[in-house]
Amino acid sequence: MKILMVNKFLYPAGGAETYMFGLGDYLKSSGHQVEYFGMDSVDRCVSNSIDCYTDNVDFRNAGFTSKIKYSLKTIYSKEAKEKIGKVLDSFKPDVVHLNNINFQLTPSIIYAIKERNIPIVQTVHDVQISCPNHRMYNEQTEKICSECFDGKYIKCTKNRCVHGSLLKSAIASYESHYYHKKDTYNLIDRYICPSQFIADVIINAGVKEDKTTVLHNYCKDFGVLPPKDKSRKYVLYFGRLSVEKGIKTLIEACRELKDIQFVFAGTGPLADLCKDIKNIEAVGFKSGDELKTLIRNATFSLCPSECNENCPMSILESSALGTPVICSRLGGAPELVTPGETGEIFTAGDKEDLKIKILKLYNNPSLVDKMSESCIKASTNTIQNYSDKLISIYQSLMKLRG
């Protein structure tokens, strides 16, 4: 099978790219042909056979003149539509798998694909279809926001939701209005939703329910796990140290749980808040084997987000490594944790509830041991299983095309 993977960034920029590169590599190892389309850049690490990509658009760091120049291009990119057309005509894929495309590539590319009658699948990495700033979170108020869920996207402009910028917010508002009015998003044949939460969000925004398939993200297969090293007892948070991740609430809980050792692995704007707190060891950003060891040997890990996460990899990785998780009751996170079996769930932003759940697990090692076993048994969504399901979806859409 020939698959064209599409994403605005073609270098490791975040979770969407990690997902796409891992999936693409596995599909190629299984005998499929995979090419990529997106923006060109000096750090691009994947390609297509005719080396055709769009120019790099860096709207965030652009000057005023460039921002004006980019404005129309970030709503409807003729360049992206034309260039993906060339890749489609050369590669002739059986299916096109979209990831993050808005602003830099724009949904204009959907029309180029439909003109060639090629099935389109899109993995929904964020809430962009419903929320012009992609986050359902207002940085100014530090609160979850769903004001645009009634379809009046001008509220994004009013609230300056995109980086506090009136211009960026106005562009995002118009982009959402434009493509919903054209019903563009229903031209996509199937949405791969990493959580039921995200499926419900896009259905509320007008996507037809029968176009959605809930498929939790795959997790790396860590193979045979070494025994846990219990010589040191600690509770782990790993991820971005920022307000929407619930770090303020977590730090307040840590201050009051003085007899528990916490390890924070990550960086971010709130990193300084971790300083001079005796029971918090801030170890900075960790990855690879270092992070794996930290997760595996933790008594349990924490995902205290105060924003709507989609399908947090931190939970999937913890469970796969036999480490129970305490997560907040928001977004798709609770779909990944079974209370009393693989972890616990608390009310987001509720310090007292978080403390109760931490103490429950910390003071009950036999329960944690049982949870650890349950986590490993429940972690069955390997990339092989995930890819098998995805290929089945590809094939079903190809059959519909005849």
Low-confidence stretches: none
Q: Which secondary-structure class do the elements indicate?
A: alpha/beta
N→C terminal distance:
15 Å
What Rg is obtained from the alpha carbons, in whole angstroms?
Answer: 22 Å
The general outline is globular
Explain what you see.
The chain has helices at residues 15-29, 64-73, 78-91, 108-115, 154-158, 166-181, 196-204, 247-256, 288-297, 313-320, 351-362, 365-378, 383-401; strands at residues 2-6, 33-37, 95-98, 120-123, 137-138, 143-144, 190-193, 212-214, 235-238, 262-265, 280-282, 300-303, 325-328, 343-346. It is of the alpha/beta class and 402 residues long. The chain contains 13 helices and 14 strands. The radius of gyration is 22 Å and the shape is globular. Helix 3 runs parallel beside helix 4 and helix 8 (247-256) crosses helix 11. Strand 1, helix 1 and strand 2 (33-37) form a beta-alpha-beta unit. The strands form 3 sheets. It has a 6-stranded parallel sheet with strand order 2-1-3-4-7-8, sandwiched between helices. A 6-stranded parallel sheet has the order 11-10-9-12-13-14, with helices on both faces. It has a two-stranded antiparallel ribbon with strand order 5-6. The mean pLDDT is 93. It is 37% helix and 13% strand.
Give a short synopsis of this structure.
With 402 residues, this protein is of the alpha/beta class.
Task: Set out the fold topology.
Layout: E1 2-6, H1 15-29, E2 33-37, H2 64-73, H3 78-91, E3 95-98, H4 108-115, E4 120-123, E5 137-138, E6 143-144, H5 154-158, H6 166-181, E7 190-193, H7 196-204, E8 212-214, E9 235-238, H8 247-256, E10 262-265, E11 280-282, H9 288-297, E12 300-303, H10 313-320, E13 325-328, E14 343-346, H11 351-362, H12 365-378, H13 383-401
Helix pairs in contact: 3-4, 8-11
